[in-house]
Amino acid sequence: MQQTDLLKIAKTYGDPVYVYDSEKIISQFQRLTKAFKGVKKLQLNYATKALSNITILKLMNSLGSGLDTVSIQEVQLGLMAGFKPSSIIFTPNGVSLEEIEEAAKLGVRINIDNLSILEQFGSKHPNIPVCIRINPHVMAGGNSNISVGHIDSKFGISIHQIPHLLRIVKLTNMNVNGIHMHTGSDILDIDVFLYASEILFETAKNFENLDFIDFGSGFKVPYKEGDIETNIEELGKKLSTRFNDFCKEYGRELTLAFEPGKFLVSEAGFFLAKVNVVKQTTSTVFASIDSGFNHLIRPMLYGASHTIENISNPKGRERYYSVVGYICETDTFASNRRISEISEGDILCFKNAGAYCFTMASNYNSRFRPAEVLWHEGKAILIRERETFEDLIKNQVDTKDLFLPVKENVTAK
C-alpha cells in the first residue's frame, strides 16, 4: 500500500478514517506461527479488544485463529463472524456470575480470574471445564496502565492463593482444563516472560486434567524506525523447548496458547486526518487536525508515540510541529515532532493505528466516529461507515413536553 493509495482512500471515504492492511495482518500471524513451529499443538487466540470489526474477525478466522474475548458482546461478535464456540475463550475481569454463565451457555471456553466466582461457578456447574487465570506477580509492560501481572494488579488469582484455589477445586469437584497468565503489554525482556512462564509451569503441576496452558501475550511492536520490539523468534525457540520438556514431564502433549492482539494488527493500521489549522505561537507551531483523543486516545492515555507523516507533502522540508486535536481539552498527539512541511488541508498519517485505536474511540464532544477501510489485495473495501447525526441520537429518548423552553420576555412599548 502506497501513500498515493492512502490519499485516494481519504478522498473517497472522507477523513478522519482508519485503514487496515490485510497483508500485514496475515504476515504477522504467519510470523508468530513460524516462531513456535517447534511445538506440536499451538493455538493463537486473537484478542478481540484490539480491533473488533467483524471483517477483521472473519480474516482471523480464515487464518485458523481462535478468539480471546473479554465481554459477552465480544463473544457474540465472534460467533457472528463464524468462529466455533470451542475456538473462543472468554477471559473477563470483574464481571458477574450471570455473564459468565451466559457465555458458558453459548458453549465457549471459560477463564476465571478470582476465587469468589470460581467457587460459585464450580458449585453450580462442576461439569463445565474452566481455565484459571493466575497472577504470577511479575511486573511486565511498557506502561503502568498495561502492566497487569504485578502484585497490586486486579487481574488473576495470586500465586500465594494457590492452596485456597486447590481447596475450591477439590470441594466442588470442578474440571480445570487450562491455566492462564498475562503479565502485560509491550514486553521487551523475554527473560522476564520466561521467568513468569516457569511460575505457570509450576502451578500447572497441581492439575491433572489440563488440555492447554495459555501464556497471554503483550508482545511489543516497533512504533518508529529503529525502535525495539519483542524478539519473537528467540522467545519461540526458548519457550517451545521448555514447553516440550514440560509436556514430557506432565505425561501428555498439551496445547500452547497465546492471545496476540496488538502484535497482529497494530502495524497494519493507519489513521488519516486532515490539517485544519497551522497555528504559530510565541514558541510553538501547532498543526491542528480534524480529530482528537475521541478517535486516538493512546498518546494521551498511555504516552504512546505514533509515527506521523505528511503524506500530502512527503518530500517537503522537515520542520518542527506539535500535532494537536480539536477537543475542548488538551489532546496533544506529538510535541515538537519533525514532519515534512505542513499546510492547511494536508493529510497526516498516523502509523501503528490498528490496535486499541478505533475500539477505544468515543463520541466525546458529540463527534462522530470515523469510517474503517480494509486494504485487501490491492483494493480499498469499506468495512464500517462513518457515523452520522442519526447514529448519535438513535438511542436517545424523546421526552417531548417534559421540559419546555423559557418564553421570551415581553417588554411594554
TrEMBL record:
Pathway: Amino-acid biosynthesis; L-lysine biosynthesis via DAP pathway; L-lysine from DL-2,6-diaminopimelate: step 1/1. It comes from the Bacteria. The keyword Amino-acid biosynthesis applies. Residues 18-354 form the Orn/DAP/Arg decarboxylase 2 C-terminal domain. Substrate binds at R298, Y302, E329, Y356. Its EC number is 4.1.1.20. One of its GO terms (biological process) is lysine biosynthetic process via diaminopimelate. The keyword Cell inner membrane does not apply. It catalyses: meso-2,6-diaminopimelate + H(+) = L-lysine + CO2. Its cofactor is pyridoxal 5'-phosphate. Keywords: Amino-acid biosynthesis, Decarboxylase, Lyase, Lysine biosynthesis, Pyridoxal phosphate. GO terms for molecular function: diaminopimelate decarboxylase activity; pyridoxal phosphate binding. The modification N6-(pyridoxal phosphate)lysine is found at K49. SUPFAM superfamilies: Alanine racemase C-terminal domain-like, PLP-binding barrel. Residues 23-266 form the Orn/DAP/Arg decarboxylase 2 N-terminal domain. Pyridoxal 5'-phosphate binds at G218, Y356. It is an enzyme of class 4 (lyase). Belongs to the Orn/Lys/Arg decarboxylase class-II family. LysA subfamily. Specifically catalyzes the decarboxylation of meso-diaminopimelate (meso-DAP) to L-lysine. This is Diaminopimelate decarboxylase.
